[in-house]
Amino acid sequence: MGADAALQSFREQLAGGDAAMMKQLERYRSTDEISKAFREGYRNAKNGGRQVELTETSTPEEVSAYRAANGIPEDAAQYPGAFRDGFEVTDADKAILSDFKAAMHERHVPPKVAAAALDWYQDFAATQAQELNAQLAKVAGETQTSLRAEWGGDYDGQIGAAQELMKAHLGDDGFGQMMGLRLMDGSRLQDNLGFVKMMATIGADYYGSNAILTGDIEATGKTLEAQQQELLALRVSDPEKYKSDTVQGKLTRIYAQLDKINARK
């Protein structure tokens, strides 16, 4: 009789026709493992039926018996546990699940306990996501309201200046990724009041006056040139107004803005 057949015969003798006992015995791959499990059961019985808990000094045999008694698989990848239906799983969650199973397996945690811990994590993650999304909407609304109140009719021009500047340097994909970055409070970078105002200021300086900004460099340049020609025409139509500090100041700013635009074409 071969070794496998002998082991199976031994299992059948011990089971005595009890199917449930036979199923339990089939978990052990040798008579030695069965013997170790028997000794562990004997120790449990001596302790009033209480299962012996593992300690730092537990022997490999005790660990093996404990795992077998608690249904802990030998391979962490086979550890029970999956995200429930309806849970929005992220790439980070997938990585966490793999690490979670490995950690539970390493610590000899019974599957039922691990499943309860995984349920808690999903409840916690879902609640966190709801709170962060609510914060995102709140900050976005507050920022837009504040900027519209401050900039008035220049709002679209200011936002266009910031967007065009970043797209010119980051590209459309890079711009989208940067604007979608989530901050610690759950809000997005694109909704941070200080950041938006800073980029709008830089963009306006880069492309020209906010009041005439259209979001297109070439169109902006033409608009500036049109304003320049309109002011220069005052030399004939209204020389006194042309010489005024107001008109001369506007011309100076337009010349400076045109120089910036032409230098970047």
Describe the structure.
Helices cover 71% and strands 0% of the residues. The chain is an all-alpha fold and 265 residues long. Among the domains are: 1-70, no CATH class; 217-265. Helix 7 packs across helix 8 and helix 9 packs antiparallel against helix 12.
Give the distance, in angstroms, between the N- and C-terminal Cα atoms.
89 Å
Strand content: under 5%
Based on CA atoms alone, the radius of gyration comes out at 37 Å
- Mean pLDDT score, rounded? 80
The count of strands amounts to 0
Task: Give the low-pLDDT segments.
Answer: 210-222
Percent helix, as a range, is over 70%
User: What does the overall shape look like?
Assistant: rod-shaped
- Number of helices, counting only DSSP H or I runs of 4 residues or more: 12
- Find the structural class using helix and strand composition: mainly alpha
**H/E series, N to C?**
HHHHHHHHHHHH
Question: What is the makeup of the main sheet?
Answer: none
Q: What features would you highlight for this structure?
A:
265 residues; mainly alpha; 12 helices
SSE order and pairing:
Layout: H1 3-15, H2 19-25, H3 31-46, H4 60-70, H5 91-106, H6 111-151, H7 155-179, H8 193-207, H9 217-232, H10 234-237, H11 239-242, H12 245-263
